[in-house]
Every structure is written in structure tokens, then in C-alpha cells.
Amino acid sequence: MRRVRAVASGVLVATLAASAGPLGAQQRVPGWERVAPAGGHQNDIQLLRPDGGPVVPIFEGWYPNPDGSHQLCFGYFNVNTEEVLEIPVGRDNRVEPEQFNGLQPTHFLPVPPGGRRHYCIFSVTVPEDWGDRDVVWTLRDPRTHGMGQEYTSPGRTRFETYHLEEPRQESRERVAPRVRLDPDGPEAMGRTPVSVGPYRAMAGEPLTLPILVRRDNPFNEDDRMAMTFRWYKYQGPGDVSFAVTGGRRVAPGGRAVIDSESWTTAPDAWGEAETEATFGAPGDYRLLLQVYNDAGGRIQTSDFEFFCCWTNVLVDVSVDSRD
Q1: Which stretches of the chain score pLDDT less than 70?
Q2: Nearest to 288 by CA among 222, 208, 195, 223
Q3: How far is the CA of 211 from the CAs of 84, 92, 244, 298, in angstroms?
């Protein structure tokens, strides 16, 4: 069994290109062929195929928390353009040290619209005195029955190159959205996820998930950028389908846009949207909601601008059988 440590984006490209076959029908996206910095494009057309390829974990960066601890942020690159992979927590999907294992996703979507990977899908909190230790995420293709190549990505705080501005990016005068699922519930802002729930649902019957969003930008009080949101299955035993309701503008890939006019009318105004989630089987699920700034108020072809700024919310749902 061979293990690959994907420390930097350039290393990842060199490793995968050796074994990946070309996907002739895939359209090129600007930036795919250059070696990217932390958090940037690492995609190359030679890595992509409809199915049969691996999912690679990627350390995106770190940022300090107000209490002195640090947040290590991870994403992933599913090199398949069509195939969704389920990799349960275990030998093929693990985070070390063990205290962080189970926080990672088990449901891995294909390459998102525009060819970028899935950024900062989950994060772990390490104490202020964590020092030079690593948090390592390892993935292996479950179809190889434990005999395939492992891909590992170590998260660490000792490299300034990977230092992210969060939840405000002063260099670009932008901030992350504020997000709630309930007017009286917890509020999320930034990549460190807030967990809500558990909600109750019935298999095969839609569960309505409302969201409230607004952005208060101290750098630009007349910030008119729209927000884009998307729901994902994060963990769970069955399929989950999402349908945006309530008249939102729907973008490619199941994303939807909330225009700034909905929350800029008053200091206490919020933009609103609803999504119906339908679960294919009973069990315990975790969903991920990502809300991010849509630069210029346009519906983007790419999934989002990874530099800044977006907000993660994890939603737990307990699904019962109809029997």
C-alpha cells in the first residue's frame, strides 16, 4: 500500500497526474494548468474522469480564534466529474489524532461547477499550545478493499503561507455572511461551523429548511453583493435531494442566489430563503449549508471565490421510517 502526503498543491498535481487518464470531453477552465498556492487552483485536465478516480483530502489553511485556539480547515478534490463516493468514517476515512475523528464528511461530491474543488468543508479546533503537531486527514478508495493508495493531508499552523483571513478579509474589504436557521437560534459567521438541530423528518417526505442571511460590512456600508447558498449531504445512510423554494434565483449546480435588497432595507432586515430536503432512508444525517458572497452580484459559473468569504452551518437531522 502506498501513502501519498499531499502537503502542497503542486505536490498533489504531480502525484495524481502519473496515474490519471485524460477526460477528452471535459472543457478546460482558466487556471487549471498552473501550480496553485494554498487554497488555489490545483486542477489539471489530466486528473479528471467521469468515474473510477480517488478523492484527495486537502489542507486549505489555518486561522486564529478569539480565544487563542486555532482552526485548521480542510477541503477535498474528487477527481470524478460524475461519480459521488460514500466513504464511512473508518480505515478509509480517518482523521488523526483520534480526538478529531468523525468531524469529517463521508459524502463526496464530484468536481463542482467551474472546476474548483470543495473548499473548507470541515475544520478542527486545536488549542493555543498545539505547537508543531499535525492533524492528518487520510482518504482511501473504498472500492480497493483496503489495498488501494492512501492520500493524506497534514494540517499545521507553522506555515504563514497557509494563514487565512477569517471571518473578515481586510485586504479586500469583505466579510462573511451572517446566517441563522431560526430567528431565535444560534448565528454563524465564517468558516468555523455552527451546529444546529437535531431536526426530525420522515423518510420520503420533504423537510423545509428556512435560512436567514445578512451581511454587515464595516469596510463598505453600501455593500450590494448578493449571496449564494447551497445545501450538501455531509454524512448519513441514504440519498438526500434538495429543492430550493420561495422564488430564489437558482444557479447551476443546485445553488441559489439571495439578492442584497432583501437585507439592506433596514439594520434588522434579513434575506430569507427555503429549501426542501427529502431523505431516501431512515437514520441520522448531517447536512452542510454554505452561504457565500457572490462577487458583483452575479450568478457565478464557479462554486465560489475561495479567498473570502463564506459561512458554514452543520444541520443534524434524525429521519424516521414511514412504516
Answers
A1: 1-46, 113-116, 146, 246-247, 251-254, 295-307
A2: 195
A3: 26, 34, 11, 20
Q: Which residue's entry shows cell 473504498?
A: 142
**pLDDT value for 143:** 80
State the Cα–Cα distance between residues 169 and 310, nearest whole angstrom. 11
Q: What is the mean pLDDT of the chain?
A: 82
Q: What is the pLDDT of residue 169?
A: 82
12 near 5, Cβ under 8 Å? Answer: no
Count the residues in the chain.
323
Name residue, grid cell 498533489: 12
Outline where the chain has alpha helix (H): 9-17
Q: Decide: residue 308, CB within 10 A, 0-12 exposed, 13-18 middle, 19+ buried.
A: buried
C-alpha cell at 259: 439578492
**In 3D, which of 298, 288, 303, 317 has the Cα closest to residue 259?**
298
pLDDT single digits (tens) 19-41: 333 333 334 443 333 334 444 44
**Distances from the Cα of 166 to the Cαs of 71, 117, 129, 175, 229, in angstroms?**
10, 20, 20, 8, 19
Which residues does 76 contact at the CB level (< 8 Å), separation at least 6? 55, 56, 57, 58, 105, 108, 117, 118, 121, 139
**0.70 surpassed by pTM:** yes
C-alpha cell at 300: 457565478
The residue to which cell 434579513 is assigned: 270
Cell of 279: 431523505
Rounded Cα–Cα distance for residues 169 and 173 (Å): 6
Q: What is the pLDDT of residue 130?
A: 94
**Sheet holding 70-78: strands in order across?**
55-64, 70-78, 118-126
Give every CB contact of residue 105 below 8 A, 6+ residues apart in sequence. Answer: 76, 121, 122, 234, 235, 288
- Given the DSSP bridges, would you call strands 271-279 and 207-214 parallel, antiparallel or unpaired? antiparallel
Greatest extent of the chain over all pairs of C-alpha atoms, in Å? 59
For residue 190, give the C-alpha cell.
465564517
Position of cell 504531480?
14
- Cell 493524506, located at residue: 152
